[in-house]
Amino acid sequence: MTSTPTASLLDDDKKFIWHPYSSTCSDIPVFAVKSASGTHIYLENGQQLIDGMASWWCAIHGYNVAELNSAITHQLKDMAHVMFGGLTHAPAVELCKKLVALTPDKLDTVFLADSGSVSVEIAMKMAIQYWHAEQQPRKQKFISLKNGYHGDTLGAMSVCDPVTGMHSLFNNILAENHFIKSPARPFGTPCQDKDLNELQSILEQHSHTIAALILEPVVQGAGGMKFYSADYLLQAKALCEQYDVLLIADEIATGFGRTGKMFACEHAGISPDIMCLGKSLTGGYMTLAATLCSKDISDTISHHDPHVFMHGPTFMGNPLACSVALASIQLLESSDWQQNIQRIEQQLAAGLQQCRQLEDVTDVRTLGAIGVVELKQAVNMASIQQAFVNAGVWIRPFGKLIYLMPAYIIPNTEITILTNVIFDVLNDGNHR
After folding, report:
1. pTM score above 0.85
2. Which single residue of 5, 50, 117, 241 has CA 20 to 30 Å from 136?
């Protein structure tokens, strides 16, 4: 029998491709995509799926967006790429100028990168090189929150949760850092002094060797989808200042409106010393990230040996990526995104509420355009993924978490479908 184009495509995929977080021997299904538009993914077999993931949280405007398409095609007429060493161009200049204006105060210098993980690597290198320039070369360690996730490269992995992360496989080569319990107080509640005791204790004992505290503001993403008190963030910033330690805010997942603020740091009213951006920076079109820092950090590094920052990606400042990123920010700012996020939060909360009655569910929580159902046990990915697709939705759980982070343009009717499908699939036992 002659294979259909879809079957042939999937056969070749299985033969040649290793997908993220997967085994080449896995029975977890892979689905061939023909196109995507708005909030819909169209499979090669003719099936249409409502996307609840925004392509790992980055396609905030949906797919095939006219304004973003135009930004790329217009830029392509001039150049697709040019090296950034010794050269510059309008898309990069305008984007960096916009990022400085948009982000919290004192983040005045932008270093462009290729991906979120790399932006974290850059932030960590900035912190270490800053303290070296400040004649404190011993300050090379980091404090990180348990249940945190900051990327898959080696430096970033060294500040990911040592249990839920990948330390068990690579702990002989990863730098050893300090980990503290993730904040216990939920979002919207104040902290007590005891909530900061562990952080303060480590700072008291080890601040002379600690370069920075790195955390995901308010929302811990891939490490557990936990929402914690903004007051914790406020007090943690104060402790960092007290003990002369930098604060790195990893806003890769939370930036550009996802939590209801343009940046999650705004919930606490703080400005970090270094901020990492990625994911939705380009509206999900191209890989691009940015690491912003204070002028004090960039100037201090530049005025001391070796008088340069020791990092230089080949595709840094790619004009296509910068152009679409600028268009994405302009599109976001011109929309009523705050009202949209509030609407999505209300719909997610109402729709996921029914899951609380299920025996396998331990918690249901929402914040901004994020909805989470936490189970007692990890899901069976092969069965639950197929069940979701059979029901006409694209939802990609991990571990014990089934979550939704849709595009901001998603209508209420589609949110209702997504939340109802989650309930039905769990209620039918297709997650086991």
Report:
1. yes
2. 117
